[in-house]
Amino acid sequence: MIIRVKVNGRLYESDVEPRTLLAYYLREELKLTGTHIGCDTTSCGACTVLLDGKAVKSCTVLAVQANGREVLTVESLDQDGQLHPLQSAFWEEHALQCGYCTPGMLMASYALLQENPMPTEAEIREGLSGNICRCTGYVNIVKAVQSAARTMADKTREALGEVAASGTATD
Amino acid sequence: MFPNAFRYEAPTSVDEAIRLMTEYGYDGKVLAGGQSLLPMMKLRIAAPAVLIDINGVDDLRGWREVDGTLRIGAMTRHAELEHSAELREQFPLLSRTARWIADPLIRNRGTIGGSLVHADPASDWGTAMMALHAEVEVRSPEKSRRIPIDEFFVDTFATSLEENELAVAVHLPAPAGPVAARYMKLERKAGDFAIAGLAVHIGLGGDGLVCDAGIGICACGPIPLRATKAEAALIGQPLTDETISAASKLVPEDADPTDDLRGSAVYKRDLLRIFASRALREIAEELHGKVGIQ
Ligand SMILES: Cc1cc2nc3c(=O)[nH]c(=O)nc-3n(C[C@H](O)[C@H](O)[C@H](O)COP(=O)(O)OP(=O)(O)OC[C@H]3O[C@@H](n4cnc5c(N)ncnc54)[C@H](O)[C@@H]3O)c2cc1C
Ligand code: FES
Ligand code: FES
């Protein structure tokens, strides 16, 4: 079946077998290997991507179900070689060891911060409860998300400040 | 692992979905959120020859009031019911239950209709729908009918739906007066199915006495169960220490738990009693503020 999917802003057209899972489509067809596969039971969240803005486990969505929709993978986070604030925070807070769960953690955190820019610790733990990490024990992951939330809020404030200082666009 | 190969159909209307279900019969399976069906297909526990994906059927989404009931479309996702501020006043049990189902990522895909038809005895929606006295609206080419939730679950993973019947919505009676609800659940780890769970929905009349009592029991029998004795004990009574304690003790009498690695039957029964007492106490506190009862 022919599908058209926008992945990280780029439109792809592919012929896929209906049984192809979105995670495999991303990894094998599009070579976007940042999305990981860790289980067969929809438990680990290593495969988390955003489908039309919502975080989902891409091992439990068919690629054909993404037809006409938009997907964001971990490869979308950095901008022109600059790490996304979440990626920097994971690095600075030692929120990863083997890194296997990290793409999923980043995408689940990204979705969480889109909906709730200043989550409490409890909200972060709840938001990431579908993502399993076998290495870190979660403490540093939670710290990283908190730190990224602060950085992103500061950036938004700075941007707003610049707009205010430069006057309105119609001046 | 990959699922088996199958033929994929993506109808865009209820009529088309039902026509495909009739055409393929036993070979066809409806794909809703896929959060139970696809994991089973990956493990090859299920291997349907045809998948009928109803994600493109817009008529099955969202909710509206119809003749004094709230009609929730079968394809409404768990997360939508969890976050709807609009439903919280009249149907507080919806968001209180939804936030216990699996994890946020699964809740973004899984649907209320899929959860009910899957008929897991530990289905949190199944349990909450018992407490809310829901009816499931189903359609086939021949007819449309509403199945009371007490007749919906037949056995573990089995409902009273016929092969070509599509669940299109659930109907919940709109409460007349103030209501409060709690969902209590013990799980082994975050996002897991219940070891035991309890849904409690209470409505009060103008006299401050209980006029609506719904109590669903989760994971303590082959299907979600109803605590009929406890419900009957509460109707027409005020919520006091005595009535709460008496009703809580009756809840385990309608449960049928088994001993397993997660706990003994005795433990699960006692858990239900404790849950009932906590839930009713919290509900009483909440409702005392809303209606002037002593
Ligand atoms: C790791 C994990 C943890 C989970 N934890 C919980 C939990 O704690 N509590 C809980 O309640 N659930 C839990 N679930 C199940 C999850 O909530 C599912 O979303 C839900 O049970 C199935 O709904 P679905 O929409 O994904 O249905 P699907 O998986 O698409 O379908 C399930 C079944 O119902 C049939 N079906 C679906 N919709 C219809 C319809 N409209 N008409 C007729 N037949 C239909 C399908 O053919 C299939 O047989 C968990 C799942 C996973 C993977
Ligand atoms: S690989 Fe998708 S949840 Fe584990
Ligand atoms: S860093 Fe190794 S699994 Fe999370």
Describe the structure.
The complex is a heterodimer of chains A (171) and B (294). Chain A is α+β, with helices and mostly antiparallel strands. Chain A has helices at 22-29, 85-92, 102-115, 121-127, 139-165; strands at residues 2-7, 10-15, 48-51, 54-57, 70-72. Chain A has 2 domains: 2-76, Roll (Ubiquitin-like (UB roll)), CATH 3.10.20.30; 85-165, Orthogonal Bundle (DNA polymerase, domain 1), CATH 1.10.150. Chain A is built from 5 helices and 5 strands, in the order ββαβββαααα. In chain A, strands 2-1-5-3-4 form a 5-stranded mixed sheet, with helices on one face. In chain A, helix 2 (85-92) packs across helix 5. The longest helix of chain A has 27 residues, at 139-165. In chain B, strand 4 and strand 5 (69-73) form a beta hairpin. The relative contact order of chain B is 0.12. Chain B is 33% helix and 25% strand. In chain B, helix 9 runs antiparallel to helix 10 and helix 10 (241-250) runs antiparallel to helix 11. Chain A binds chain B through residues 1, 17-21, 24, 40-42, 45, 48, 54-57, 59-62, 64-65, 108, 112, 126-127, 129-131, and chain B through 1-8, 10, 31, 34-35, 38-39, 42-43, 51, 53, 55, 79, 102-106, 108-109, 190-191. The structure holds flavin-adenine dinucleotide (FAD) and FE2/S2 (inorganic) cluster (FES) (2 copies).
Secondary structure: elements and pairs:
The complex is a heterodimer of chains A (171) and B (294).
Chain A: E1 2-7, E2 10-15, H1 22-29, E3 48-51, E4 54-57, E5 70-72, H2 85-92, H3 102-115, H4 121-127, H5 139-165
Parallel strand pairs in A: 1-5
Antiparallel strand pairs in A: 1-2, 3-4, 3-5
Helix pairs in contact in A: 2-5
Chain B: E1 7-9, H1 14-24, E2 28-31, H2 37-42, E3 50-53, E4 63-66, E5 69-73, H3 78-83, H4 92-98, H5 104-107, H6 112-118, H7 124-131, E6 135-139, E7 144-148, H8 149-152, E8 153-155, E9 158-159, E10 166-173, E11 179-187, E12 194-204, E13 210-218, E14 225-226, H9 228-234, H10 241-250, H11 265-290
Parallel strand pairs in B: 1-3, 2-3
Antiparallel strand pairs in B: 4-5, 5-10, 6-7, 6-10, 8-9, 11-12, 12-13, 13-14
